[in-house]
Amino acid sequence: MTAFEHWDEIVPLKIWEGVVGRAVNGKEATLAAIELEPGTVVPEHSHVNEQTGMLVRGSLRFRIGDETQELRPGSAWVIPAHVPHDVVAGPDGAFLIELFAPPRADWAGLERLEPGPPSRA
After folding, report:
1. What does the pLDDT look like over 71-89, one tens digit per residue?
2. Beta strands, E only, the chain
3. So where are the chain's domains?
4. pLDDT in the model for residue 2
5. pTM of this prediction?
6. In angstroms, rounded to a whole number, what is the distance separating the alpha carbons of residues 67 and 15?
7. Homologous superfamily of the 12-107 domain (CATH)
């Protein structure tokens, strides 16, 4: 067993329609690189995990609880556990990095896609 992985070897997960993530799981948290296709809508949901993230590329309209923001690269967020949130990707899609604590055990049942380079890392 090794402590290292490479992006191209991490199995992509279909999280939602138009949303693909590559997750690295530790004992205490999941780190995920997530790609959203242009115009993708992630419906309102919540989960037991605290979720922190940063937008690397593209744009998002992000609602957390009662607050909505238009995000651009460099924008960051914190979503406490159990708080409803939803997202709409902008016209160029989005690439973001998110940390979930505790780890995303619920992702174990997601559809697995073929490993390989990301569409536009």
Report:
1. 999 999 999 999 999 999 9
2. 13-16, 19-25, 30-36, 41-45, 50-64, 67-71, 76-79, 85-101, 111-112
3. 12-107
4. 83
5. 0.91
6. 24
7. Jelly Rolls (2.60.120.10)
